[in-house]
Amino acid sequence: MTRSSRPLAVFDLDNTLSDTRHRQHHLDRRPRDWDAFFTAAPHDPPLATGVRLCREAAADCDIVYLTGRPERCRADTVAWLAAHGLPEGPVHMRRNQDRRPARVTKLEILRRLSANREVRMLVDDDELVCDAAERAGFRVVRARWAEESETLVQAQEQEGRT
């Protein structure tokens, strides 16, 4: 099997691989402090279950990271992945001004990825993203190992911020 023929395992970041609890307080105030929220991301502790699943998937799949974080967070995000020993792989991020819901932006990228490669699985904590991906025929692993945050759900789906 050549590298390009290996299937893809697609992983979300926030509350799938990284624990965002320490920075969610920036979203509890009005107006929400998005700059502070994203600036604190490099300090996210890893979520052991998600990290283990990602490393295991890398044995049979090429890893792709799919996040709702804005493009301006790329350097910090790539550094965080490397610092925590996660497998190398392309990182797909939201354009800085793209405020569409995560279920729309992520499904768009999944479809693009699946045009040339098998997407073995999507691992994500966002229930609406998971529902949309399953309806589109993708195998989904729901990342339910992080503490749920209604604030983060609103950010993902209503404000198109992460």
From TrEMBL:
User: Where would one find the signal peptide in this protein?
Assistant: none
Which intervals hold domain Polynucleotide kinase PNKP phosphatase?
A: 10-141
Superkingdom per UniProt: Bacteria
User: Which SUPFAM superfamilies would you find in this protein's record?
Assistant: HAD-like
Q: What is this protein called?
A: Polynucleotide kinase PNKP phosphatase domain-containing protein
Origin species, per record, is Streptomyces ficellus
